Amino acid sequence: MATRTPRVLLKTLASIGAVFTLLLQTGCSSVFFYPDQVTYVTPDRLNLEYDDVYLDTPDGETLHGWWLPAQSEPKGTVYFLHGNAQNISSHIMNVAWLPERRYNVFLIDYRGYGRSTGAPDIEGTLHDAETGLRWLTDQPDVQGQPLFLLGQSLGGALGTALASEWVERDEQPPMDGVILDGTFSGFRAIAREKLSEFWLTWPFQVPLSWTITDEYEAHERIADISPVPVMVIHSERDGIIPFHHGERLFEEAEEPKRFLRTDTGHGSTFVIPGYQAAVLGFMDANGE
């Protein structure tokens, strides 16, 4: 019994050291990316027409996506970037309602998600988001029509960086609006918050967060999206990305901007018809 406490302490210290080393080596990637390859539902099960799309990235990966055409004369196109878990087959319900409302939808899986090759990291997924957008803007069905980016959670952070660079480089066609749903204000900030929730990583939340690049912080990039209109959506009941992240993004955004305060769980905004209507109103107003 006399040696039990030291042995337990040594095992605990070893565990902490192992966690610290793993997170340091991965740059805290595990905080952001939880992909899987399970097919949860396909568009045809939701009575949606669709095409499988495969895209090659400049660094040799292959991305998989779905093109969902509008069910009647299209009013525009929505480019959807999903959150950090699972893959497009589990996130499709967030946009499955749009084709009936006369919007085309294109959604992709980042590298390592679903049927896309590779392993995810921040830089890689940013390249994937741009690869998808460039393919989309080359499609005849999209050209000459309003174009909107909808990003949820991680997808909103990626979308903010992508949209700000698109505007700064004066890329064509221009976006007509950017919609951010349940998005965190910065990679470092949310990593620090999540690391602080686990007792093994709590002591290392600050040094580990500094292993994450600060080149793509949404709160620093969102102002650069102007004059493209921005809609920030965040729930007061979001248990994954706290409400203050949405407040900060809206505060840092330049006009024209709109804030939609919701009360659903994280990633559940569009189960509420009223929230669907608010987004449709934003797109209709800015797509004319």
TrEMBL record:
GO terms for molecular function: hydrolase activity. The keyword Hydrolase applies. Residues 73-189 form the Serine aminopeptidase S33 domain. Keywords: Hydrolase. InterPro entries: AB_hydrolase_fold, Hydrolase_4. This is Alpha/beta hydrolase.
